[in-house]
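Slide 14.
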Amino acid sequence: MYRIGEFSKMAKTTIKTLRYYDGEGLLSPARVDEETGYRYYTTGQLIRLSRITALRQAGLSVGEVASILSGQDRGELLRRRQTETEEELKETASRLSRIRHLLARTKEDFFMEYQAIIKELPACTVFYKQGVVPTFADYTAFILKAGEECREANPHLKCVEPSYCYTTYLDPEFRQHDIGVEYAQAVTARGKETDTIHFKDIEKTQAVCVYHRGRYESLGEAYAFAFNWMEENGYEATGSAREQYIDGVWNKESQEDFLTEIQIPARRN
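Slide 15: predicted structure.
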């Protein structure tokens, strides 16, 4: 038999680890001297310690290792850990991709303007209006008119706080004139529908998000950045992009101070 210090050297581990495994019931000494308290191990225990180490290095918790050593099906636990590790690898790969993207653009001017982040957009109920606006400059009038029409039909309907309103494009391709749009505003409940005002429920979704400060006419720059970022970081769109209006004509005097968030529902390839 070998004292704990000698055994730890043979096993290439630490005394602290052996004491910890003893306390957790994974590997108890073959004998403990009642007078001195010295712990003694046998060479045969190197095999059990090796099994413990292999399972721990595979990422299993002490509790999971104990379950396997006590006879539980290790296949189930290992498959679950495999799935968790694969997800961790995907997340690590995603972080590395974002770091590379940031490093590649630290010297470019537009990097100071735009950054892409991943958000989860919550589920909500919205009223919405669809229509065609002549140009981007007519967005504000269309939005304000939609709000007025909804209030006329639903004077007691309340918007959610904080406010969440956005537009999506109805045309399959980008247009600068006669633009098909849908404006939506999150509300606390469904209301009365009209010829122009309707209600629907929006499911929660993950989205690539980019903030744009300035006129609506220059939103294309933010879109270009967002889709380029998605391509470089392995994301694909799963739904229509939303333009969330945070600051606008209702609280800013200058269009240069308008703040819009581009939200593109997306998932990793």
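Speaker note: The chain has a mean pLDDT of 87.
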